[in-house]
Amino acid sequence: MAGGIIMREAHFPGRAPIDAYGNGGFRFAEMSHRGSILCVPSGIHGWEPADAAALAEADFARVIEEAAGIEILLVGTGRELKPLPNAVREAVRAAGVATEPMSTGAAVRTYNVLLAEDRAVAAALVAVS
C-alpha cells in the first residue's frame, strides 16, 4: 500500500455565513481556510486567485457551471475595490449572473446579509492580510 498525504480540494458542502476574514484567510462554519474562497450553491470552495488584478475568465468557471442557482455574484477584490476585467464580467453576465465588485470586507458583509435573506447569492472573495 502506497503511503503519503492525499491532498484534496478545499470544500465545505453547504452555504454558511462568513464569520471572519483577514490574516490571509476566512472563518466559516467553525472552520478556517487560508487563502481565497468561492461561495456558490454547491458549497464553499478554496479559490486560487490571490490578486484581483489578475482575475481571468477561467477563475469563474464554477460560477458559470452553477449559474442556474445564482442571481448575483459579489466579488471581493481585496482591501480596495478593483474593477473586474471586461472578459470576466461579460462571461459571467452571459451565464445570466450579475456581478458586483467591492472590497472583500464589503463583499463579506453583503454576502452574509443576502444569505440570511435566502437570496441566490454567490461570492468570490480574494483573501486579505
From TrEMBL:
CDD domains: Mth938-like. InterPro entries: MTH938-like_sf, NDUFAF3/AAMDC. It comes from the Bacteria. Pfam families: DUF498. This is Mth938-like domain-containing protein.
